[in-house]
Amino acid sequence: MFSKRYQPIVQAFLMSVLMVTIMTALITALNTGIGDGFLGRWAEAYVVAWPIAFCVILIAGKRVMRLSVALCQRD
Fold first, then answer.
1. d(CA 10, CA 46)
2. Which conformational region is residue 2 in: left (phi greater than 0), alpha (psi within -120 to 50 degrees), or beta?
3. CA-based nearest residue to 62, from 7, 22, 23
4. Which pLDDT score, from 0 to 100, does residue 1 have?
5. What is the full per-residue pLDDT of the chain (75 aa) written as tens digits?
6. Per-residue pLDDT, 36
7. What is the pLDDT of residue 56?
8. Rounded CA gap, 34 and 59, in Å?
9. Which member of 2, 15, 28, 62 lies 3.0 to 4.6 Å from 42 by CB, making a disulfide possible if both were Cys?
10. Could you give the CA distance from residue 27 to residue 3 in angstroms, rounded to a whole number?
């Protein structure tokens, strides 16, 4: 579907979409409840949070992966 060279961007996109969807829905529900206007409040939070998460994952993703490998080398 996509060239292999786009894998880091696709991974960052998918990871950020999943993380932000879950986190903004949960935090919005906890803070304001699930009632009238929930979808609008959630969408507002999503629009703010997603670009931030996407950029953070693009910038720090490889470093975090390397750190996790270094931390988990011992059996």
1. 19
2. beta
3. 7
4. 86
5. 889 999 989 999 999 999 999 999 999 999 999 999 999 999 999 999 999 999 999 999 999 989 999 999 877
6. 95
7. 96
8. 34
9. 28
10. 36
Q: Which amino acid is at 29?
A: A
- Distance separating alpha carbons of residues 6 and 75, to the nearest angstrom: 33
The one-letter amino acid code at 49 reads A
49 with 22: CB under 8 angstroms? Answer: no
In this structure, the number of other CB atoms found within 10 A of the CB of residue 59 comes to 11
What pLDDT score was predicted for residue 9? 92
Taking the C-alpha atoms of residue 64 and residue 75, their distance in angstroms, rounded to an integer, is 20
